[in-house]
């Protein structure tokens, strides 16, 4: 199939010569002109159809992308639920005599539960002023708005 810009250039040249009366009106010339216009029209319709098809493909890909995102979230949530289920089951068994939770291990996996939880601070019993100086850090930041005034 000829390229659209080649056909449009050829048609443009023919029309320009016809307007300048440089071309005699012959049957072969009008046949060439009609042929070029026909090919141009076919190419335009082909490219318009191709453009519509590409837009439809892009729309389908957008739908597929959204479906995969939903599937990804679903799989991640399921993995998180399974992890919590395993942790809760091991905690329910309770620690052994040494205070450690049982570890399950094979060639591929090792499943354990950490004994230490999140640190909690009793604010009533803890006074920042009583802490050693090495544990506290004070940063002095100037108030720029008051300096400008």
How would you explain this protein's 3D organization?
Pfam families: Sipho_Gp157. This is Siphovirus Gp157 family protein. It comes from marine sediment metagenome. With 149 residues, the protein is mainly alpha-helical. It has one domain (4-114). 59% of the residues lie in helices and 3% in strands. The protein contains 3 helices and 2 strands, in the order ααββα. The chain has helices at 4-19, 27-93, 144-148, and strands at residues 104-105, 110-111. Strands 1-2 form a two-stranded antiparallel sheet. Helix 1 (4-19) runs antiparallel to helix 2 (27-93). The protein is elongated, with a radius of gyration of 39 Å. The model has no long low-confidence stretch (mean pLDDT 79).
Largest sheet: 2 strands, antiparallel
List the uncertain runs. Answer: none
What strand line-up does the widest sheet have?
1-2
Question: Termini, distance in Å?
Answer: 76 Å
Protein name: Siphovirus Gp157 family protein
Pfam family, one: Sipho_Gp157
InterPro entries: Sipho_Gp157
């Amino acid at each position: 199939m000829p390229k659209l810009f080649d056909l449009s250039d050829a048609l443009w040249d023919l029309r320009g010569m016809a307007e300048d009366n440089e071309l005699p009106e012959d049957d072969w010339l009008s046949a060439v002109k009609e042929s070029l216009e026909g090919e141009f029209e076919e190419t335009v319709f082909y490219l318009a159809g191709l453009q519509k098809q590409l837009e439809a493909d892009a729309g389908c890909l957008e739908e597929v992308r959204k479906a995969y995102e939903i599937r990804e979230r679903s799989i991640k949530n399921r993995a998180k639920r399974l992890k919590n289920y395993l942790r809760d089951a091991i905690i329910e068994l309770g620690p052994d005599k040494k205070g450690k939770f049982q570890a399950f291990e094979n060639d591929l996996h090792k499943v354990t539960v950490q004994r230490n939880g999140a640190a909690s601070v009793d604010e009533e019993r803890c006074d920042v002023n009583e802490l050693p100086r090495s544990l506290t850090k004070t940063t002095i930041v100037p108030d720029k708005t008051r300096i400008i005034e």
